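*** Protein under study ***
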Amino acid sequence: MDLFISITLTIFIIILVHHLHAIHLRRKKNLPPGQYGLPLIGETLQLMSAFKSDNPQPFIERRVARFGLIFTTHLFGEPTVFSADPDFNRFVLQNEFKLFESSYPTSISHLVGKHSLLLMKDGNLHKRLHTLTINFVGAANVRDHLFGGIDSLISSFLNFNDGKIFLMDETKKIAFALTVKLLMSIEPCDWTESLKKEYFILIAGFFALPLPFFSTTYTRAMKARGKVAKELTLVVKQRRIENGQGNNKKDIIGALLHEEAGRRGGRVFSDEEIADFLVAILVAGLETTSSSMTIAIKLLTDNPLALAQLKEEQDKIKAKNDNGKALHWDDYKSMVFTQCVSQLF
């Protein structure tokens, strides 16, 4: 009985302290109106449940109706201001590193790494790395160095023997293989399969409660993150050796090492920094790419006229390139309707 009373009082005190702290935070920081939910957990469970459902909108709509387009909540262990105001969101993005500083919840920061591009607070370095990445995937570099490899890699994934496939799973496989090739010039193999397995465990941690002692998903994600970072660091070390021997490959690691060599006396990247940068691109690029591919196919299936027009355009190119010949850059440039479709995503 005494134990029950003790536990009850402890829980009551935790809840009371949590709500008093929430009120203090809101007053001290002049935060928008809102609610903090349960102690420690906040409203994380409601958010996770909403985004795993077919319709996540009610989570936002209920709070917007009660508190307005900008409201305060508590997500992934931290007080959070949530904006559903497009104009305010645009203002924030346009003034990043000026009036606003990008940040992520601590739990997510641990998963992507302290040197990640997603967490970088050095505006000049962020711009330098962002420009390097954009230039690498620019039209000229894709045409001259990447296009043929991308075509053959994707083609290797399009031989489906089973009558039924899970589209999202297949697009994730394609996106992962393509991203790894662009990052470090490694074709699909046992090593990439092992890396992919750990990567998907890592990704699951982004949607788990950040409580290491209570969430096995988050704990496994942190362990997977360590394995992924270790493997990528080994790749970077090997590439430094190869680069010193004059073997500089046309990929993201090669671009980083080339950029580093061109800044004599300037700031160089540590192996850990490059590994974190690679993790960030994997995290940021893979999920968005696979989701966009899946949505594009779904919407084309729902729009027979657009699908027929796209198929007609592709069939003409296929007829011209008989005997399974690889696509050329001119073929890609002639895909007028296909490019219109892809630009929607």
